[in-house]
Write a structure and sequence with these properties.
mainly alpha; flat; 53 residues
Length: 53
């Protein structure tokens, strides 16, 4: 994720919020992330990188 963040900043992309969810995250964890995202009214894109097991 650090490489993504660095590359994004190098080309002028603002990352207003970044969060990691543990592999065993439950619904409450996901709900908390969504609530946090809702605070960024001017955000236009949400990028989600997921890994399956």
């Amino acid at each position: 994720m650090e490489i993504f963040k660095t590359n994004a900043q190098d080309v002028g992309i603002c990352i207003a919020y970044m969060e990691s969810i543990p592999p065993n995250g439950d619904d409450e964890v996901y709900d908390a992330v969504v609530q946090s995202l809702l605070e960024f009214k001017n955000a236009r894109v949400v990028a989600c990188f997921c890994e399956g097991s």
